[in-house]
Amino acid sequence: MKTQILIAALFLSGLAAAQQTKDTLKIKNIEAVNIRKQVFKKQSDRFIYDVASSPIAKGTNTFNLLKQTPMISSIDGKSLKIMGKSDVVIYINNKKTNMDAEALIEMLKGTPSEDIQKIEVITTPGSEFQVESNEGVINIVMKKKKNDGYNGTLKMNNEQAYYNNPSAGASFNFRKNKWSVNSNFNTGSWTDRERYTLSNGDSTFRNESFGYNSDPNKNVGGSVNIDYELNKNQSLGFTYNMRYNKSFNSILDVTNWENGALINRTVNNENAQTRNHSFNLNYEIKTDSIGSKLTSNVSYLWFNRDKMSTNESFPLNTDPENKYSALQQSVPQIINNYAANIDYLKKTAQGNTWLMGVSYNHTNTDNDTQQDKIENGAMVNDINQTNHFIYKERILGAYVTYERKLSDKFSGKVGTRYEMTRSSGEILGKTSFDRNYNNLLPYLNLNYAINSDHNLTYSFSSRIRRPRFWELNPSRTYFTPNNYTQNNPFVLASKFYNQEISYMYKNAFFANLSFNYVEDASNQIPLQGSVTGPKKDENGNTVIATTKFLRYIRTNYGNNKQFGLTLGMNKSWFKEIWTTNYSVNLGYNIYSGTVSEDPTSVPVPGQTEVIDPYVINFKNFNISGNINNNIRLSSNKDWFLGVNYYYGSKVKIESGTLGVRQSFDVSLKKIMGNWTFIAEVYDVFNQNYNSIQGIQPNGSYNNIVNFEYPRLLNIGVTYNFGNQKLKKAREIKSANDAIKSRT
């Protein structure tokens, strides 16, 4: 499971002409009046991009349209980012999507851009949004159409990276009287290829590893959304989502050197399957004629991931102590979630709005890890790494938000969210813990429209970030026998305080100044150390030996402060032939903390473990930027050229200094009636990869180069059929949306 981080952007403008006939009894000139449509504008707590008025929103898909939206970007074709935010949450018609990240991207790529009315970018979400940490929200508002009938989309893609990766998808929408049905289906196969160069050590020891990872995947996913209007004020809805991913024969092959001498070759073979099913029942009633409504949801989520792997090390020298070794591991995870929520939106005749709601989530996770190791030529159970971890979590939440327009220029929004968390974990037969905490999360937004050209906004919010369920499962993922990642069931939730001041000028230029403070910050920390204890030599005698290790432990380390300034421009030129979307982000980060022990270590009789303290204490300035250009090549508006460039400077993160990243992308699009053909090349010069150098004050170091063959050629064909003015079923927010993002 990979998550990637970066960037964002905002706006546009357009014009229309209107004519007005004066006195028909007199001969007068008809005067042309230019009316400028506000394609991009600031409203209360969000930036609004009116897609229906944009020249670039023709013949493409929603994912590509989002990449061209101010403050939003994608540098890999697989994820979306808002500039200056840790992550992004997608809402559709103010309802949080309930798909995993890969399924969501496929859905966006299969949704025609013509279905979109507007895109809202919310950099500091209010109390009513189910978000965590420093996440931003992208709310996609679909067009509301009332015709009966059906329509659909067929889509085929073929990506050529290191391997060839085909995919296909289809969506079908039907509406008749009170019934609406939306469905989609997608399938594909792809193989990720990564190349690794690793080195770690200190003044007395040097370990180097070189190798690759080949990870084949087959994927099937889909959803169905059924909506029935009981009467003009009441609606009942049902949603089902599923996803199945199969990754068999995933190979990690690494060759290892120690102090310049060839040691061994490690091969890890992994088979994994992931199944995800979710159900949601929704009821909505309109309580008055000005937009007030009550919404309720009941949801169930079942998530299952099975992973089995074998890790073998083959000696490549004549050292008698360097022997063949092997590990076998089974890491199943089952998550069951039951959830419910009730939300009430109350509008007043004076234009004020109340939002209030309560929610409840009950989650059970079962992680039964089995690990074996080879001893005397046979596999035996490793009791130190075999564990059965049960984790239970109950979250009761309530929020209230009040929004008021104080004058024609000044408006405000204030709210708070209360969350009560009760959780317990038990490693059966070993240890257990209870973790209970309450959080009151205030929110404030003040918006001042100085005049038609200037808009100023201040926002404050407080959020928490709970550990993902897979982060809590105390299992290991091996790179080599002494180099692995280790999850941590004892990691604490982090608390975030976010502030922003944003300014917009003439719907074409914007600035966003932010400050974020994080308590109990957590990340994956590389811990180096050694274990000294008894060991059998080649003659079967017991000797005392010392073994070096490198563990990536997800744990809390301290706090951090992040300052950011985003400057951007979105403007069309030469009668909208050339549309530009440029942005730059300046950041200054202050990190402070120390990790001096492995919180997951279990004492072993006769062994002594020594951890080198890992110090996180630095200040860092960084810069990143996006340059997006869309050029109309024909007067018929059927040929378009896209030229985009991304740059990210060196930046310090918890694990070290991440090197410079760049990506130059080009695309060509042709529209032929209901057909759209597109050819895209991402990262033409293969410069968007991760290179991390981590050096500690005591001289120890840990360097990583992870090259994912980022250059990618994508050829896509999309066909839209049926009545394109069809109204879709309501997009429904599931009660367990917040839980799905943590699986």
UniProtKB/TrEMBL annotation:
Signal peptide interval: 1-18
Membrane topology term: Multi-pass membrane protein
Listed Gene3D superfamilies: TonB-dependent receptor, beta-barrel domain
Subcellular location, principal: membrane
Locations listed in the record: Cell outer membrane
InterPro entries: Beta-barrel_TonB_sf, OMP_b-brl_3, TonB-dep_rcpt-like
Pfam families: OMP_b-brl_3
GO CC annotations, alphabetized: cell outer membrane
Superkingdom of this protein's organism: Bacteria
GO molecular-function terms, A-Z: siderophore uptake transmembrane transporter activity
GO terms, biological process: siderophore transmembrane transport
Ranges where the Outer membrane protein beta-barrel domain occurs: 286-719
Keyword Membrane carried by entry: yes
Keywords: Cell outer membrane, Membrane, Receptor, Signal, Transmembrane, Transmembrane beta strand, Transport
PANTHER family: HEMOGLOBIN AND HEMOGLOBIN-HAPTOGLOBIN-BINDING PROTEIN 1-RELATED, TONB-DEPENDENT OUTER MEMBRANE RECEPTOR
Name under which the protein is recorded: Outer membrane receptor proteins, mostly Fe transport
Organism of provenance: Chryseobacterium shigense
Source taxonomy: Bacteria, Pseudomonadati, Bacteroidota, Flavobacteriia, Flavobacteriales
